[in-house]
Design goal:
CATH topology of the domain at 2-136 and 204-218: Rossmann fold
Structural class: alpha/beta
Helix content: 25-40%
Oligomer: single chain
Order of helices and strands: EHHEHEHEHHEEEEHEHH
Bound molecules: thiamine diphosphate
Largest sheet: 6 strands, mixed
Number of strands: 9
Low-confidence stretches: none
CATH superfamily of the domain at 2-136 and 204-218: Thiamin diphosphate (ThDP)-binding fold, Pyr/PP domains
Shape: globular
Strand order of the largest sheet: 1-2-4-3-9-5
Number of helices: 9
Length: 246
């Protein structure tokens, strides 16, 4: 299913949560342009606080929602993010999403060149992207920068950016990404890293296996058939209290 940020998080917010929590074999790609484009540029659930536009001339007083945080809260088994200007990584993410068994969620930061042009430019432009985005790779330390000289270190439970070689930090102090962790807390923390304080993470935050809704339902049907036989619709309709109308 392909959706925008408004349809997934406002009108469809309820369906979004419950599709993910049930682990239905459904893939959701959310094109997040941080604006309502179709209706000509009103602020959306992901628009930045204070954003000024026609529907909020003095700046929006709505706090935005982070789609990834919502996906983790709903216990999504696959959560990823990609950037529209990085087609190679975007196609890898779509392939990973398609291969996942169960409900999967991919957020795509998508520029709207008419109503919200340049929303992601400060961190995705060619000249700055290596310093301002970080690619998550399973089992690898969270390093970024042109020479991979910076990294994410956990100070207690809060993340901070450190530079290797400064203040005694080495690669051993850098958080190692684990997309397979059954406990989603670290992935949740990564999903909340925001520009400009932090590099913006791209890639797979979480990919865990859990039986799907369809598998569990099929299991219950076959258990029921083995204990009670295949059943008959005619018998079912005519069982219990029935009346003859004359
Ligand atoms: C299932 C469904 N069909 C039709 C609509 C009506 N509708 C509301 S917004 C929209 C277009 C959304 O476009 P998109 O590019 O996802 O978001 P935008 O940035 O333009 O707001 C449509 C067709 C709907 N919300 N849900």
């Amino acid at each position: 299913m392909i959706t925008g940020d408004g349809d997934a998080l406002s009108i469809g917010g309820n369906h979004f949560i419950h599709a993910l929590r049930r682990n239905i074999d459904l893939k959701i790609i959310l094109f997040n342009n941080r604006i309502y484009g179709l209706t000509k540029g009103q602020y959306s659930p992901t628009s930045e606080f204070g954003k000024k536009n026609k529907s909020a001339p003095m700046g929006t007083i709505d706090y935005p929602i982070n789609p990834l945080s919502l996906a983790f809260a709903a216990e999504a088994t696959f959560v990823a993010r990609a950037m529209d200007t990085e087609p190679k990584n975007l196609s890898t993410m779509i392939e990973r999403l398609a291969a996942h068994k169960g409900s999967g969620f991919l957020e795509v930061y998508q520029n709207c060149n008419i109503f919200n042009d340049g929303a992601f430019k400060p961190f995705s432009e060619r000249e700055v992207k290596e310093d301002k985005m970080i690619l998550l790779e399973h089992g690898k330390p969270l390093l970024f920068g042109k020479n991979k000289e910076k990294g994410i270190h956990n100070k207690g439970v809060l993340p901070e950016v450190v530079t290797l070689g400064e203040k005694g930090y080495t690669v051993d102090d850098i958080l190692v990404h684990d997309e397979k962790s059954l406990e989603p807390t670290l992935s949740y923390i990564l999903g909340r890293l925001q520009y400009p304080e932090f590099p913006v993470p791209m890639g797979v935050f979480r990919a865990v296996e859990r039986p799907t809704y369809e598998e569990l339902l099929a299991g219950q049907i076959s258990t029921s058939i083995s204990s009670q036989g295949t059943g008959s619709l005619d018998n079912l309709i005519n069982s219990g209290e029935t009346w003859e109308i004359h």
